[in-house]
Structure formats: C-alpha cells, structure tokens
C-alpha cells in the first residue's frame, strides 16, 4: 500500500491539472463519471494516503489500496478505474478506490494529522496518543487519525530509530520517548519523501524487511503483532519493551 510520501509525489506530478477543465471522463468506477465532465479542477491535494481532486462543489478521493497505481500522460494495458482527460494531458488510475466527497474537504480531514502537512501539529498528536494508553506502539503508528500517511514502513523504521519495541503500550512510554516517537514520525515522512524521489528508499531501510540488526549484528525478529497484525521487524536487544518483561512471541 503506497504511504503518504508516495501520494505526495503523485499529487505533485498531477499538479499541472489544477485549473484545467475535465474534457473527458471514463473508466469502470461505480461513481457517476459523466458528472465530472466540464468541471474545472480547483486544486490537487492529498491527505495521508488519500489523493484528492477538488472540484467546485465536491471532490474526488482516490485511494490506491494495496495494489493500485497511476499513470500521467500514458496508459497501462489494463482498464482504468478512472481516466480523466484535460487539454494538457490525462490522468489514469488503476485497481483503486474512487469516491465522491460531497462535503468541503476541511470538514472531512484533519490537516494537522497529516505527517507531511504544513499544518502538522505535534502537540495534538501527543494528546491523541496519551488518550489511548493501552494501544501498542505498533498499532499507534498505523493510526491514520494520529499519523495520516504513515504505514508499515514508517512503523518499523521509526520504532527502530527510537529503540522502542513494537509491543510497548503507549502509556508505558516515558514522556521524552513519546515526544521522540512523534518527532521521528514527522522526520521520517520527509526522509521517506526525499529517498523515494531519489529512487533509493529501500537502500535506507534499517529494519523493514531486513534480516540483521545494523546496531547489534544479530537477527531481527519478524512477527505479525498487535490488533493490525501487520508485519513487524525489530531487534530484541536494542529496542526496549516498555511496560512488560514478557518475552516476545514471534513467527
């Protein structure tokens, strides 16, 4: 599933369509596609993992899900979920979710939760985390209402950076460690974006899909943890499990 920085790259690539009129719309989406024809694009935006096309009275929300993709000014050998034609090119999206948002985007989205937004509010993120003390760190980092745009790569890399075991409940983290979690999630969003643009993201992975801890030179543990049951990669030696002395059950 593409994470927030990848959607930000998609947004920037599609920004040339802002101010353009939709001349053609087709695809196999279940929305009323012809409703889009003739409408001007007010803005191209994103929130976390959501790509947004703002129109005069409503917006299009595109979520690439697990296997979605997009093409600008070119097409794949597959039927697009939605294809939009403009005077200056076309946007095609595949294997994704397309939804119409009738309400203003400011009513739907909390921009202060977007890890890449200029409106990001770390104090608000810390308040949200303190309100869910029993939530495990591995689940908290995937909570889009706290860290919009963060995904499994974020989770594994941030927890490794700050030396926190994924099964640590938030309420057991010292205040300084909670602040570090929030700050490093924001920092990793921009690191991810920089590396993704340079086509070298995987080169910088320290924990995600890795076999050996670069700090301890011992095997990393691979396990599906927490309520989300997403794959975690972590080191039992240098990532402290706060709030419990119980050993980790790995798979």
UniProtKB/TrEMBL annotation:
GO terms for molecular function: damaged DNA binding; DNA-(apurinic or apyrimidinic site) endonuclease activity; lyase activity; oxidized purine nucleobase lesion DNA N-glycosylase activity; zinc ion binding. Residues 2-101 form the Formamidopyrimidine-DNA glycosylase catalytic domain. The keyword Hydrolase applies. Keywords: DNA damage, DNA repair, DNA-binding, Endonuclease, Glycosidase, Hydrolase, Lyase, Metal-binding, Multifunctional enzyme, Nuclease, Zinc, Zinc-finger. GO terms for biological process: base-excision repair. Pfam families: Fapy_DNA_glyco, H2TH. It catalyses: Hydrolysis of DNA containing ring-opened 7-methylguanine residues, releasing 2,6-diamino-4-hydroxy-5-(N-methyl)formamidopyrimidine. Residues 206-240 form the FPG-type domain. Belongs to the FPG family. This is Endonuclease. The lineage of its organism: Bacteria, Pseudomonadati, Pseudomonadota, Gammaproteobacteria, Pseudomonadales.
